[in-house]
């Protein structure tokens, strides 16, 4: 189906169902570990769904395929969201998500490329993933490879100086095979990002670093589709997609609540969250 | 000791890169606005497309190196030791060390022999920092021949390597036909059974000269070992020396905390308790001055090492 400018409409319902499953798995994983980061995982869930079920050229049966697109989770603490989408996409069994953060599990608290299929770079210390993604994009340019590189950052992460070192480098080297996505949920551990140390205006900052800037809605698949398609057409500059999101999205008592940045639900909260997500899931199945 | 040819290990590094770069097209060199000083400029001249100047942003440079290595390149990231091991420590630890990536970090201007720039640029802590990272190989070559061999070995080794290089010209000591560089293997430079001097990098030449002087003036036979690979340490060679000569003296242009002296002490305290005297920078910052004068003041030249050995007999 055409929605103007030659864009083919995405299968929104399919992606919404994937996102719903990602969200349930996030809650399962964090509840099972009794630690982890649900808030940012939930705000990133739709971005993960879009990337892994629509955008990235990857093969779960051949995770190390040389010409695959690369993804670096620079905001490594939202591993529950990342692992959930990787499992749903078939990189490893969904049941393993319950071992997240457990002693002996390969599903480490933050992404570990050495032991987790589908993870292209170990991350967790904020500000570093974007540099590695930039190196991958540069590498593709040096050897004329066609794969593209994507990296997801938090908005609080923009306070790390290294992000801007990497942005300056990517802009300077005209890395148009690099897409930086900002999960702009507006909250960090200590409070609202603009109260702590405001990174705003995010778009104008990246623009000044020679990025093509797209502002979009992180929870609207049509908008995400339009943004990622637009990024593919950009030449001579990297793209940043600033995706406005809701922290804790999909679990009402976690939405926009700063305390759910890095806290596990108790049994009652777990049941409430799972019920809400199951209801949302069954509504989607009736569509 | 041959005085014929003196060359700084940083310059040997630049030359080695050109030699390797000719054969291996996956070799990429990164710098952080110091290409003239780190001597990667020599490579830039030969292979401009494979020399990436990241600007004054060392933390990002380490991450870019990580990304390059993940996608099949063999990056050599260069800057001064202060910025490679110091400023970018956490990037090296988390983005290179933890995923055990095939990144080579060539850090020049290590130690107090940086000279006039003074304490802010004299990194005497890098060996300690780098050897504390799991899986990191740490090399401190002594001369032109060893540096070229070390760079080649680092290229062929699959994993992270930290290579410590100097600004000051140093004499060639590994010019014997039997010299062969093996990662993790020390070099026995002089036999002797009265005590053993274990040294690395810039200090090996004056340590060897002091040993010769001791033999001539005092008839003391000092065994001299060059440890170019501080991690993994050649345990066999060190334990044999400790068993045969008893006393050990370590000499390095690095803090006595965390460097070669610590590595040797760690080993001996566990496997063969032996008295170790650590000659190095004694838990203090350096200062401005000509490199040769600084080495003299801090007791790291032939005279200082000679005196320290005599005082410890």
TrEMBL record, chain A:
Pfam families found in the cross-reference section: Transketolase_N (PF00456)
Entries under SUPFAM superfamilies matching the protein: Thiamin diphosphate-binding fold (THDP-binding)
UniProt entry tagged with the keyword Heme: no
Required cofactor names: thiamine diphosphate
GO molecular function annotations of the record: metal ion binding; transferase activity
Residue ranges constituting the Transketolase N-terminal domain according to the UniProt record: 16-271
InterPro entries the record matches: THDP-binding, Transketolase_CS, Transketolase_N
Keyword Metal-binding: yes
Gene3D superfamilies in the cross-refs: 3.40.50.970
Alphabetically ordered keywords of this record: Metal-binding, Thiamine pyrophosphate, Transferase
Similarity comment: family membership: Belongs to the transketolase family.
Protein name: Transketolase
Source organism of the structure: Propionispira arboris
Lineage, broadest ranks: Bacteria, Bacillati, Bacillota, Negativicutes, Selenomonadales
UniProtKB/TrEMBL annotation, chain B:
Segments forming domain Transketolase-like pyrimidine-binding: 7-172
Keyword rRNA processing: no
Cofactor(s) listed: thiamine diphosphate
Record keywords, A-Z: Thiamine pyrophosphate
Keyword Secreted: no
Family assignment from sequence similarity: Belongs to the transketolase family.
Name this protein carries in UniProt: Transketolase
Source lineage: Bacteria, Bacillati, Bacillota, Negativicutes, Selenomonadales
């Amino acid at each position: 189906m055409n929605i103007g400018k030659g864009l083919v409409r995405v299968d929104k319902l399919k992606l919404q169902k994937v996102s719903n499953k990602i969200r349930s798995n996030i809650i399962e994983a964090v509840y099972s570990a009794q630690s982890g980061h649900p808030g940012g995982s939930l705000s990133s869930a739709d971005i993960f769904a879009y990337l892994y079920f629509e955008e990235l050229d990857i093969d779960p049966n051949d995770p190390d395929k040389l010409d695959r697109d690369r993804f670096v989770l620079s905001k490594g603490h939202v591993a529950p969201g990342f692992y959930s989408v990787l499992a749903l996409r078939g990189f490893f069994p969904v049941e393993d998500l319950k071992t997240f953060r457990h002693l002996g599990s390969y599903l480490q608290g933050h992404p570990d490329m050495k032991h987790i299929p589908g993870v292209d770079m170990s991350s967790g210390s904020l500000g570093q993933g974007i540099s590695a993604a930039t190196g991958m994009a540069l590498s593709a340019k040096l050897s004329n490879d066609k794969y593209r590189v994507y990296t997801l950052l938090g908005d609080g992460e923009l306070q790390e100086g290294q992000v801007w070192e990497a942005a300056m480098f990517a802009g300077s080297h005209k890395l148009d095979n690099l897409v930086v996505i900002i999960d702009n949920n507006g909250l960090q551990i200590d409070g609202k990002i603009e109260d702590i140390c405001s990174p705003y205006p995010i778009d104008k900052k990246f623009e000044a670093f020679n990025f093509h800037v797209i502002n979009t809605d992180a929870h609207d698949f049509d908008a995400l589709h339009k943004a990622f398609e637009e990024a593919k057409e950009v030449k001579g500059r990297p793209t940043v997609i600033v995706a406005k999101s809701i922290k804790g999205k999909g679990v009402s008592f976690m939405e926009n609540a700063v305390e759910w940045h890095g806290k596990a639900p108790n049994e009652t909260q777990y049941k409430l969250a799972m019920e809400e997500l199951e209801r949302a899931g069954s509504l989607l199945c009736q569509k | 000791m041959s005085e014929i040819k003196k060359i700084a290990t940083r310059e040997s590094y630049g030359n080695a890169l050109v030699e390797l770069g000719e054969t291996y097209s996956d070799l990429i060199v990164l710098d952080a606005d110091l290409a003239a000083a780190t001597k990667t400029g020599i490579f830039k001249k030969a292979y401009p497309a494979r020399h990436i100047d990241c600007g004054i942003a060392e933390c990002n440079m380490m991450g870019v190196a990580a990304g390059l290595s993940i996608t099949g390149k063999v990056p050599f990231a260069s800057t001064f030791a202060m910025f490679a091991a110091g400023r970018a420590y956490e990037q090296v630890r988390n983005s290179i060390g933890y995923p055990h990536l095939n990144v080579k970090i060539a850090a020049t201007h290590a130690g107090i022999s940086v000279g006039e720039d003074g304490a802010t640029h004299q990194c005497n802590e890098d060996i300690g920092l780098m050897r504390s990272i799991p899986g990191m190989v740490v090399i401190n070559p002594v001369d032109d021949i060893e540096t070229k061999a070390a760079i080649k070995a680092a290229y062929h080794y699959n994993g992270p390597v930290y290579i410590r290089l100097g600004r000051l010209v140093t004499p060639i000591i590994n010019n014997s036909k039997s010299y062969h560089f093996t990662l993790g293997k020390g070099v026995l430079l002089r036999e002797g059974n009265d005590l053993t001097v274990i040294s690395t990098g810039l200090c090996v030449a004056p340590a060897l000269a002091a040993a010769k002087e001791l033999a001539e003036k005092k008839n003391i036979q000092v065994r001299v070992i060059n440890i170019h690979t501080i991690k993994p340490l050649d345990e066999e060679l060190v334990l044999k020396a400790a068993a045969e000569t008893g006393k050990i003296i370590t000499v390095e242009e690095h803090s006595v905390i965390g460097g070669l002296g610590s590595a040797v002490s760690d080993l001996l305290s566990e496997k063969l308790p032996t008295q170790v005297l650590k000659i190095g920078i004694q838990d203090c910052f350096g200062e401005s001055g000509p490199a040769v004068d600084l080495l003299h003041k801090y007791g790291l030249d032939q005279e200082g090492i000679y005196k320290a050995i005599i005082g410890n007999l």
